[in-house]
Amino acid sequence: MADIRIDYYPTHEEQGIKFRRGHALPFGATMVPNGVNFSIYSSAATSCSLVLFERGEPEPFAEITFPDEFRIGNVYCMIVFDLDFERLEYGYRMDGPFNPEQGHRFDKSIILSDPYGKAIGGRDTWLAKPNWDNIYPYRSRLAFEDFDWEDDRPLELPIEDLVVYEMHVRGFTMHPSSEVRNPGTFSAIRSKIPYLKELGINCIELMPIYEYDEWENSRENPVTGELLINFWGYSTVNFFSPKAGYAATGKFGMQVDELKTLIKELHQNGIEVWLDVVFNHTAEGDHRGHTISFRGIDNKTYYMLTPEGYYFNFSGTGNTLNCNHPVVRNMVLDCLRYWAADYHIDGFRFDLAAILGRAQDGRPLSNPPLLESLAHDPILAKCKLIAEAWDAGGLYQVGSFPAYGRWAEWNGKYRDNLRKYLKGDEGQVGDMAQRILGSPDLYYQRGPTASINFICCHDGFTLYDMFAYNTKHNEANGENNNDGANDNHSWNCGWEGETDDPAINHLRHKLIKNAFAILMVSQGVPMVLMGDEMGRTQKGNNNTYCHDSELNWLNWSLMEENSDLYSFARHTIRFRQAHPVLRNSKHFQHRDYVGSGLPDVSLHGVSAWFPDWSESSRAFAVMFCGDHAKQGSSKDDVIYVAMNMYWEGLAFELPHLPNEKKWYLSVNTDLPHPADSFEIGAEPLLDQQNTVWVGSRSVVILVGR
Q: Which residues are listed as membrane-spanning (predicted)?
C-alpha cells in the first residue's frame, strides 16, 4: 500500500470547516494538496482568526481562531481543506493592545487584508467607490499558477541598449483618439505594441500597477466641480496584487492573467517591462487613515514611528514603511522575487528610494541592509534596479546612492543641467559635458549605465510644456497653485501658453528636437516620458497626480498634428540604436587606444579641439570615435554633435578625419521638417568639410565615414 501523507488530512473541525496546523513558510495563502496553507506574521497580536468569504458575499461563511499550537514563534499558520479556490476571499482579525504610544493599534472589529495576498477583490473596476461600511472592502484572493508562459522569460537586454518609455497604464490609451478596445487597460497596451516598436522603444517603465485606491484623498475641484482622485497610484494597498481596475477582465477576477499576457506579448516583441515600485509608504496614511492591512497586523513592525508612537513622514504622504526591519525587508524581497519569477518582470524603479536606506529611527544608514540584500539577491540577479535617489525628508543621494555594483539611478542632475542649458542659462557647458559623457563625475566607479538620463518624467512639466510655460499652472488641482515644484528650469519662448505665433511655435519645436537629439547621443540610458515624442501638453500643470482626464490621457491625434516632432524623435532613437559608440558600458578614456587616429571621445568649441568652458559659453561639441565602440560590437562611424544655445548662429570648425573619411549630415534642428533629419545610411555629404554652420539654439549631428 502506498504511503499516506498525514499532512493531507485534517486534525480539527469547526463550523463544518476541516483544518490542521500549517506550514510557517511561505507567508500568504498557498495552495497545497486538498487545501490552502494560510500563514501570517504578527509580533504583538494576542490572537488571530482566519475569516473566510464566498466571493462578493457581505458576510463570512466561517471564522476560525488559530489554536495556540498553530502559532510557531510569531507566525500563525493553518491548512484549511476542501475550499472552493475560485470563489474564495479571505482575511484576518488580529486581537492585541490598542496603545498608540507603544506603537500598537490592534482592533479586532476590523477584517484585515493579507500583506502577501496575490490578488485583491472588492474593487474590481476603475473608480468603483469604496464602501467603508462594508465589513471587508479589500478582500484577499488566491492567484492561480495555471498561466501558460510558453517559453517566455525576462529578456535580460544589456541596459546600455535600452530606450525606456515611462508610461501610465490608464493614461496611455484612455483618450478616444487611441481607438483601442478596452481603453485604459493592460490589454489595450497590447494593441499599441506596433507603435512602440516603430518608435524604437525596447523597454516600458509602468507607473504603479499594484492595487491602490484611486479614491484616496478624492475631492471636488471647488471651481470646476471636477472629481479629483489619486490617478498616479503612488499609494499602495497591496504590493503583490496587480490593480483590477487596470484590467478589462478585472470584473471577472482575471487581472493576473491579463497582465501576464501583456508582458508575454511585449517580450515576444523585444520590449522589456520595468515596474515603478513604491516601498516607501502605504495607503493607510497617518493615524487618521483607514486600517486596511499592515497597521492592524503589526503597526510597530511595518511603520517607522516616533518615540511618541506617531508616524514618521519621509514620503510626504502620511507614513513611512519600516524597510530596514528584518520582517519588512523580507516582505520587500519576497515581493520583488514574486514579480520577477511569476510575472517575468525585467526591472524595478524604486520611488523615493533614499527612504530604503533609512534606519528604523529615520537616520540614513551607511550600509543599508535592504539595498545590499536586493543587490545580491539570487533571484533578482539579472533584474535592473533603478533608484529615485532622493526622498521627501530631504535626503538627496544622486551620485552617492549605495550601489553595491548593481544600482542605477534616475539622474536628476542630468535633467536639471540639460533643462538649464537648453533654455540658454550661463555656466552650464562644463556640467553638460559631464552629463553627455555618462556623468563620470557622479558615476566614475559605476560606469555610464548607472545613469538613467531623462529630461521629463510623470512628475513635472512635459517636454512641450517645458518650452511653453515659465511657471506652473496647477489651479485645476484645487490647491490654489501651491502644489508642485517651482524650480522647473523652463522657458516659454516669449509667450505663456499656446500661441498662433509661427516664430514662437517654430522655436518651441526646435528646442524639443534639441532635447531629443542630446538625450539620444548621451552615454547612459535614455528615458522618454509618454507622449513627449508627439508634443503632449498638460496645459502648464506640473503635478497632474489627481486628474483622470485629458490632462493625463495621451491624445493620439497629436501624432499627426506634431508629425515633425514624432518623426524626429523616431529618427534620433533609431540613430542611437544604429551607433554602438553611443551606448558604452564603460566610461571613455579620452585617448586613442586602438590606433584609429582619434581619441575615443573629444570635446570641442567653435574651434576644433578647444572647448570654451567660460561662464558665458553656451556652445560646445563632442566627438565619439566609432573605432572605440563598445566591446562585442562592430566598428562604428565617427559621431560629431555640435550644440549652440546662443541666440545667434555660429560656425564650428570641424576636426579633420583620418583615413579619407568624410562628414555627412544626420541632424540639423534649425532646418524645417523633413530636412531636420536624414535616414541612416542616406545622409547627404556635407558641402563644406572644414566648418559647419549651427543656427541659433540648434543642434547639428554629423557622421564621419
A: none
